[in-house]
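Section 5: illustrative case.
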């Protein structure tokens, strides 16, 4: 395959696969474990402080990096243009949203609707602070930067 007027060598392919495997072997199993973890039985005395769940954000970023590396080398799929910003958005917004949904699912399994009802307001507040509010602020900033309608400048 040719890119930028230079023919890719065997060394290029080896380096690409080494990077993709390094990122993928850390990211993919962690994403898988975090997604199926809430549905696994656990002893009554087990307490989850929630910090280990934050690895899902890192795992999503690593998995995205592995896929973006392979996309850069082989160009499949053609329509996808990976970027650092896109990777951050997937890891941050997708990660926090998945953590909250998986947490609610775990509470539903552990204690039914009664347990979910006790913390649903807090879960919604956490989602709004980490996902909703940054999304709104980023959208407003983008509208202001582009001078798009819908932005009111009071200055």
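Designed sequence:
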């Amino acid at each position: 395959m040719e890119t930028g007027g230079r023919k890719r060598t065997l060394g290029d392919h080896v380096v690409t696969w080494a990077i993709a495997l390094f990122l993928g072997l850390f990211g993919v199993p962690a994403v898988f474990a975090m997604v199926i973890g809430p549905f696994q039985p656990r002893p009554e005395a087990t307490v989850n402080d929630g910090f280990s769940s934050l690895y899902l954000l890192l795992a999503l970023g690593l998995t995205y990096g592995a896929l973006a590396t392979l996309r850069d080398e082989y160009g499949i799929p053609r329509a996808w243009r990976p970027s650092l910003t896109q990777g951050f958005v997937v890891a941050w917004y997708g990660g926090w949203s998945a953590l909250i949904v998986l947490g609610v699912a775990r509470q539903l399994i552990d204690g039914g609707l009664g347990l979910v009802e006790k913390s649903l307001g807090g879960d919604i507040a956490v989602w709004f602070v980490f996902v909703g509010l940054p999304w709104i602020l980023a959208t407003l900033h983008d509208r202001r930067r582009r001078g798009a309608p819908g932005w009111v400048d009071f200055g």
